[in-house]
Amino acid sequence: MAKTKNFFQCQSCGYASPKWIGKCPDCGEWNSFAEEKKEAVSRQSAIISHLGKSEPQPLNSVTGERGQRSSTGIRELDRVLGGGIVSGSVTLIGGDPGIGKSTLLLQAICGIAEKYGKVLYVSGEESPEQIKLRADRLAIHSGDIILLSETSVESIVHTASKLLPKVLVIDSIQTVYTEDILSAPGSVSQVRECAAKLMLFAKRADIPVFLVGHVTKDGSIAGPRVLEHIVDTVLYFEGDRGHAFRILRTVKNRFGSTNEIGIFEMSDAGLLEVENPSELFLLERPLNSSGSTVVASIEGTRPLLVEIQSLVSQSNFGMPRRTAIGVDFNRVTLLVAVLEKKVGLHLGGMDIFVNVVGGLKIIEPAVDLGIITTIASSLKDIPLDPKLIVFGEVGLSGEIRAVAQAETRIKEAAKIGFHRAVIPAGNAEKIKGNFGLEIIGAQNVEDCLEAVFP
Ligand code: TYD
Ligand code: MG
Fold first, then answer.
1. Which amino acid residue places its CA nearest to atom 10 of ligand 1?
2. Is the same domain home to 271 and 289?
């Protein structure tokens, strides 16, 4: 019998220590150590020895693409994966509870089952009856979707090896366990070991595997960051539960670009693909009301027009409030300071609220000019031209800096029917053609405000 010994492991990053410690020296997390039991023999070497031998070979003698891509029938998902599912790949989908991970995967495997045949959906969280209820709601009645309620990774792999499905889905990786390790399911060593076993299965059987991973309070996939290193592709399903929009984002992809996003809308019949997100985000925009600006932003490789609203009102307290939802708070305070110092707007005694409509989060600096104009518009109580878009990064001395992909942004604005664009002068010089818009290049914040408030 193998000798067992206990040790302590950080549940957030996987750092191991022989003693319990309060703060992880690796990731800095407090109170994250839990006791784990491990056999004295290292399993890692056992796994590697299973992988089989491969001979060294010259690069130019390697032929073809390993495996074909299969389509899920959901275009937004295919694009995020880099053009479909690669056979033998392991994909991790992370996201908050209730965001729609199980729904997305059920819809995806329905498309695969229709086209390619049997798929295996293993759920350790829901009973087959619960899954059936959801499938009814989504109008999925395929006989090729095989359900399995199982949490032992050994029996999952055993069943999958017999069934040889086109896709294997594990919902979720935190509920499965391996008999080789004595720690509780969901602990770092369990999650890592199970993922390694499933990875091995995927590569050997050449079957794509999807793993659902829960997300911790601080936003990383629960348990181990080590999991992100093991798998081929990591996707995050984000969104605000109060809003219907969901964004599927690539964090890592061994088979494609990490710049892609997929946009979905949660409806009462499951997730719908959003073909034209800009139109959707601008749907309820109040025209001719102050404190509303449309910014041409880029999410990954896709242009996205979003409305930024602000409200500037006289503060009743000595300490004026600043609130930013969907944009960086520090960025907003910085831009308010630029407006005060460089343009002379009196914002010192004002409460300022900035909000991105639709529950989106925009981190790129091109949104700066939108924040500037929306705050100025609200303060002056002058509505902006409803057919105007802006974008550009603002520096500390009030200068406007060029941003990437200006042409893509302008084209998107033209498509939606905008007439004017105030953009960085650096971009305006280089841009070829105006795509039917009046393009105004602004050197600094003053230029920009002059252009938008004639
Ligand atoms: P689910 O896929 O169970 O989330 P996860 O697996 O990420 O925990 O999503 C459940 C949520 O989605 C739940 O709040 C109900 C909602 N929902 C709809 O609004 N419409 C639908 O058709 C379905 C199936 C779920
Ligand atoms: Mg679920």
1. 98
2. no
For ligand 1, residues with CB inside 6 Å are: 95, 97-103, 134, 137-138, 266, 268-270
Q: What is the pLDDT of residues 25-46, one digit of tens each?
A: 888 888 888 887 765 444 544 4
Q: What sign has the CA pseudo-torsion 69, 158, 95, 224?
A: negative
pLDDT digits (tens, 9 = 90+) for 382-430: 999 999 999 999 999 999 999 999 999 999 999 999 999 999 999 999 9
Question: How far, in Å, is the centroid of ligand 2 from the Cα of 114?
Answer: 22
Same domain, 257 and 300: no
Ligand closest to Cα of 125 equals 2
Q: Which domain holds residue 315?
A: 280-452
Pocket test of ligand 1: the residue of 96, 103, 265 to mutate, having most ligand atoms within 8 Å of its CB, is: 103
pTM above the 0.85 mark?
no
Minimal-distance CA residue to ligand 1 atom 8: 98
Q: How many structural domains are present in the chain? A: 3
Residues 10 and 87 in one domain: no
How far does the centroid of ligand 1 lie from the alpha carbon of residue 103, in Å? 6
